[in-house]
Write a structure and sequence with these properties.
Length: about 600
């Protein structure tokens, strides 16, 4: 059943639709010449379509009735010629319109993806991942359906109705009035069909979503299902959801089942009326047989497009709503923009955090309050504290994933808000807790840090961490395909690749989110050795999950409830009576003793 469901919030009023169309027209600038060509082809094809009945009229009235063989030959020859022209023009218009539409979608995908890659972390905190992905999937898909077939049918249907009405009005206004008799029923039926089918499509889409959700849940939890013998229960639940989807589909079928016969009946009734009234007029010698034939043959050019338009309405709405959402996404401002007068950061310098406060959203409580901190060049600082205290947030501000709500973060005396993006990423690198790998080879994933790096530079980065031999020992060496999200490598190997990226980038400042607690002892030792090598000669801020890491740092900062409550060396903080670090360290060592 054609069409796509749209919700109430997807519906575009006249003003919003006009804005979207005007903006789309501006975006179509590079395709303007092809659009004019497509319009010319569409008009030509429509003229060929309505010319057929007119030539039949000419052949009947001037050839058969008058016994003029020349006129009959002319009519037949012209009919064949018009049909051939229409065949080739139709093929050409499909190709040209598809080129324009697919080119527009290709450019839109590129623009949206490029914009998504440049949007700052606050955007991804606000938006759900599924919503963002739907912009590039369901919204683009809804437009693709429109581009591939809907747009051509929509424009050609309107053009065919208009030109057919003009031809019939110029031929016989009396028979045109006869044709108009069933049209109110067709229009009313089409309005009702559009309303009912839209609701039916929406229900089907919801039922599909529920069934797919249950399917995904069942596949993800199949071990638990089998462990507790819930196979029958889950199968029955799935069968119930499948039954509701079946009913929703059948509802849409019933709507189509009453609508299509109404159109067929209206067309049949109009044909009967034209033959009856037209035949009377022919008997009275006030109309020709050819004119009656023209009207009978032209009726399909009126009723078929009306049916197509009613079925295309949802598709047009859905495509317009999808385009509106994409434009809204493209209009989303970067939360952490580059200043117009941005300057390059110096090659080296201290990190200064002055009076920093931060909240992820204005309506949420601050995550950090009044934080003051200076990290000297080459110093290693470990941030410790309970979960949710603000350690990671402070590190993200240093990397300028976010801008502080209050205060400043600077490097070498330059506020990070005034730094160029390129120099910021060259000076400060972040190694996250979980090394994310892209589909590709190990070499490709290391080169993410610097796309132009040579093979020798990639290998030197791995050598700097002492892990090149580990990866070259694999059957395909550095050309090993890691597969999606690095599924072919272990957790430790993924972290090593992530650290090799940082080594290749060769930054001045490292922000490390320590993640060795889930590794086996052998792998943990390799990763910790790589971390030590990576930190050599660099200013380093480590989010320490193990306090043994904090003990090796030059200084330790204790973050609690959004504040930097203690700052000093490991020994200094352990000597503080009643100190937070001392309590954390005691609890940690007690936990180690209990598990020994």
């Amino acid at each position: 059943m054609p069409g796509a469901a749209v919700t109430e919030e997807d519906r575009l009023d006249a003003k919003a639709a006009g804005q979207v169309m005007r903006r789309a027209a501006r975006t179509m600038g590079p395709y303007r010449a092809r659009l004019w060509l497509a319009l010319g082809l569409l008009v030509t094809f429509t003229l060929c379509t309505i010319a057929g009945p007119y030539l039949v009229r000419y052949g009947i009235d001037h050839g058969i009735r008058d016994g003029d063989g020349g006129a009959l030959d002319l009519a037949v020859g012209a009919y064949v010629a018009v049909a051939m022209v229409g065949f080739f023009v139709n093929r050409a218009q499909i190709v040209v319109i598809s080129q324009v539409g697919e080119g527009f979608l290709r450019d839109m995908r590129n623009r949206v993806f490029d914009h998504l890659m440049r949007l700052s972390m606050p955007f991804y905190d606000r938006e759900k991942a599924g919503v963002v992905v739907s912009r590039m999937t369901s919204d683009i898909d809804s437009m693709q359906e429109l581009v591939q077939q809907g747009l051509l049918q929509f424009v050609s249907s309107i053009l065919l109705i208009v030109l057919t009405l003009v031809l019939l009005a110029l031929t016989s206004w009396e028979l045109l009035l006869v044709v108009a008799i069933p049209m109110p029923f067709v229009i009313l039926a089409s309005i009702r069909f559009q309303r009912d089918s839209n609701q039916a499509y929406l229900t089907v889409r919801d039922r599909i979503g529920l069934m797919l959700s249950h399917l995904q849940e069942g596949l993800s939890g199949v071990r638990v299902i089998q462990a507790y013998g819930r196979e029958t229960v889950e199968t029955d639940r799935f069968a119930h959801r499948n039954k509701t989807l079946y009913r929703a589909h059948m509802r849409s079928v019933w709507i189509q089942a009453w609508y299509l016969p109404v159109i067929e009946l209206a067309g049949t009734g109009a044909t009967a009326l034209v033959v009856f009234v037209g035949g009377r007029l022919v008997i009275e010698d006030s109309l020709t047989v050819g004119t009656v034939a023209l009207f009978v043959l032209s009726l399909s050019n009126l009723f078929d497009p009306v049916q197509q338009l009613s079925q295309l309405f949802n598709q047009v709405q859905s495509g317009g709503a999808g385009l509106k959402k994409l434009y809204e996404l493209l209009d989303t401002d970067v939360d952490v923009p580059e200043a117009p007068d941005a300057v390059a950061l110096p090659a080296a310098g201290a990190i200064a955090v002055a009076g920093v406060g931060f909240a992820y959203r204005p309506d949420l409580d601050p995550v950090l309050r009044d934080v003051d901190l200076t990290v000297a060049t080459g110093e290693r600082l470990a941030l410790v504290g309970p979960t949710g205290a603000g350690k990671s947030t402070l590190a993200k501000l240093v990397a300028r994933y976010y801008d502080p709500t209050d205060g400043t973060v600077s490097f070498g005396g330059v506020d990070l808000r005034r730094a160029t993006s390129d120099s910021l990423r060259q000076r400060i690198a972040v190694v996250p807790q979980e090394g994310f790998l892209f589909n590709g080879t190990i070499r490709d994933n290391v080169r993410v840090a610097r796309a132009e790096a040579s093979d020798e530079e990639v290998e030197a980065a791995l050598d700097a961490l002492g892990v090149r031999d580990r990866f070259e020992a694999l059957p395909e060496g550095l050309e090993t395909e890691v597969r999606e999200r690095g599924s072919r490598l272990s957790a430790g190997e993924k972290q090593l690749v992530s650290m090799a990226r940082a080594a290749l980038a060769d930054p001045t400042v490292l922000v490390l989110d320590e993640a060795t607690s889930s590794l086996d002892p052998g792998t943990e030792a390799v990763v910790e050795d790589a971390v030590e090598r990576l930190m050599e000669g660099r200013t380093t801020i480590v989010i320490a999950h193990r306090l043994s890491t904090a003990a090796r740092a030059d200084r330790v900062g204790v973050v609690d409830d959004g504040r930097l409550v203690e700052l000093g060396s490991h020994d200094e903080l352990l000597a503080l009576e009643g100190g937070r670090y001392r309590a954390l360290y005691a609890a940690w060592t007690a936990g180690l003793a209990a598990t020994a």
